[in-house]
Amino acid sequence: MNSNQFKDIVTSLIQKGVEVEQDALQVAQSKLALKSIIIRVISVIGSLIGLGLFMGFIALISSDLFSNNTFLSIMGLLFLVGSFALNRSKDSAVTDSLVVSFYIIGYAFMTYGFGDMFNQMELVGLFFSLLTLFLFNNQIVSFISSVGTLIALQYVLYKFDITPFYYIYLALVVVLTTYLFWQEQKVRTAITWLSKKYLPIFTACFLYTITTASLLRSQAFSYHNIELFSSMRFVFVITVLALIIATVYLIIQKMKIINPTVKAAVYLVVILFNVLITLNYVVFGITFLYMLWSFMRQYKVGFGISIVGLVFSMIMYYYDLGISLLEKSLSMMGIGVLFLGIYYLIQKGEGQTNEK
């Protein structure tokens, strides 16, 4: 039984006068959804291993075929067509695993075959990612297609030697993620196609921005010299800072804090720390922004990932500072005391508001 059938049954019971405890129903649905996701992930992994071993065996006995781009393209097309056909059949964990496994193998074959044939692997990958994102209704496939689209766009910048605009691209993805945080209910209800794709697209944008921002200081990006373009990085920092200030404003409005001293202290600390750290570690600004929105939307997984990214960026920032270990320890302690003071001021401001 899928979720739509379950909702129809519950609705019919309510219409017949049966009392349904909504809180208990939501808890049960959450547990069942988690179990379903775990089962589907395990099924997908099993299918990938099985198909991978099978394709490896075929490659061993006919290695010449797998060096032929035309053969790879035809095989990729067959796998994608098979995945699409299975996707339109009965919804189940087994079918889901086959759909995703066929899709991954088909996408890899098509991208490599056509991409190597025309020496445009980035554009071919982008085309097939967008095409499958629109055609498939499977949540896992939509997530993989979304990630593929974001990564393909990134490598298109490398391909055409317009790497200086990478920070602009990253800023646009951060803006999109923030919008999806902010207007979740509107997006889910107003637009039919995007409402079905909301979760995979949002998750892909969320993970992509944090992951790539974390890698910006590593050797993986040194070939493209992204860190050299400080002017573009400055534009990115301004964009993220504007989003953070707007988010803090919404939080203050939601908490009904009216004390001007508290407001000024919060804005000052937020701006100061983000300007000083985000210029060197862009992941700090992104994770700080996502942490605020995850807190507002009660997005526990996102909040946890944001905290990990935030701690990572803070550790790397202090690791690179040219000061002694004692000075670093004292500065960290001072930051802790400062944040405790901000928390105290916020609680004090809330108390004054409640008294009025």
TrEMBL record:
Protein name per Swiss-Prot or TrEMBL: DUF4401 domain-containing protein
Domain DUF4401 intervals: 38-347
A Pfam family the protein falls into: DUF4401
Signal sequence, start to end: none
Organism: Myroides odoratimimus
Coiled coil stretches, renumbered: none
Keywords: Membrane, Transmembrane, Transmembrane helix
Record bears the keyword Lipid metabolism: no
Record flagged with keyword DNA-binding: no
Highest rank taxon of the organism: Bacteria
Chain segments annotated as transmembrane: 37-60, 66-86, 98-115, 127-153, 165-182, 198-216, 228-252, 264-289, 301-319, 325-346
